[in-house]
Amino acid sequence: MKISFIGSGAWASALACVLAGKMGNEVTLYGRSKAEIDDINLNHVNSKYFPDVSLPFSIKATLDPKEALRDRDLLVLAVPSSQLGNIVELLKENLNNKPLLVNVIKGFDLKTGEGISSTLSKCFGDYVSGIVSLVGPSFAKDVIHGDVTCICAVSSSLSDAEKVQSIFSTPSFRVYTNLDVIGAEVGAGMKNIIAIASGILNGLGYSDNARASLITRGLAEITRFGVACGASERTFLGLTGVGDLFLTCSSFSSRNYSFGYEIGKKDEAAEVIRSNTKTIEGMDAAKAIHEFAKARGVEVPITDAVYSILFEGKKPSLIAKALMSRELKAE
């Protein structure tokens, strides 16, 4: 099977290793950094992300979109959502068939308020045979080191989801199918907001009890919002819901958790935001969900609290106390 990754970052490298380990796969990474591409081809390592990991010799990398996109069976989209416009033109100019598209971008389109799959369908629907997202509790560094990982192939098409399940599944990378696209996208987007809140609590000095409470109430908030958007409540008890939430809220390997932790330590967000150089998905998600929930009349107190810290300059320690002082009610 001829497989290409649009993107040559951490997730692309990790998933490429999963696929390159299966017989018969021809795996190519397309990127725009010559240094990165040369590093992969000449040194068989992507030292920017994984300097200690040797990539399989069968993985190739290229700067040439024609080489990456011609006669492909499968395309894996592993770029920031901000690059989608450029990618559409890339596919339009270079594809000569309709491959299946696998998406690993998570979250929401801030312009439309829709999940990323809806945006992808509008952008790429004419150029691919179907769209499937890989969603679930997974850090790229653990995947590339062969740690056991369970994830979901999410699509409105069961046959497409099952194809991706078969293509990606290995003894250490287990893929389930899931047809609740809305639920999976809500879980994937909102978990980063709760992760920022979890990091803030830890940075403020709160411990395990507080984190357990936050994750539980965060799951309730995600579920409430997701159901209001048309998702199945059951989805949030699975890998794309509580599984992804637990992982992201409990580890310094999570950019969002680490970002929140620094905010909590300083008890203010402005300086941390100014000095940040990483992509923090929870920031955009907090802004989007705060506005979407207000428009839909859905209560999202944790999201609103994170929004007030990030965008209104509120003091984290005071916001944490305010959350604990809300009106008492049944769970």
- Structural class by SSE content: alpha/beta
Order of helices and strands: EHEHEHEHEHEHEHEHHHHHHHH
Q: How many domain units?
A: 2
Low-confidence stretches: none
| Percent of residues in β-strands | 5-15%
CATH superfamily of the largest domain: NAD(P)-binding Rossmann-like Domain
CATH architecture of the largest domain: 3-Layer(aba) Sandwich
Assembly type of the shown chains?
single chain
Largest beta-sheet characterization: 8 strands, mixed
Q: Quick one: overall form?
A: globular
Share in helix? 40-55%
Number of strands: 8
Mean pLDDT: 94
The CATH class name of the largest domain reads Alpha Beta
Strand line-up of the largest beta sheet: 3-2-1-4-5-6-7-8
- Using the coordinates shown, work out and report the CATH topology of the largest domain: Rossmann fold
What is the CA–CA distance across the termini?
A: 50 Å
Structure annotation, total helices: 15
- Specify Rg, calculated over alpha carbons: 20 Å
Can you describe what's shown?
This protein is 52% helix and 12% strand. Helix 8 runs parallel beside helix 11 and helix 14 (301-311) packs antiparallel against helix 15 (316-324). The longest helix is centred in the middle third of the chain and has 24 residues, at 181-204. The chain has an 8-stranded mixed beta sheet with strand order 3-2-1-4-5-6-7-8, sandwiched between helices. It is globular, with a radius of gyration of 20 Å. It folds into 2 domains: 2-179, Rossmann fold, CATH 3.40.50; 185-324, N-(1-d-carboxylethyl)-l-norvaline Dehydrogenase, domain 2 (Orthogonal Bundle), CATH 1.10.1040.10. It has 15 helices and 8 strands. With 331 residues, it is α/β, with parallel strands linked by helices. The model has no long low-confidence stretch (mean pLDDT 94).
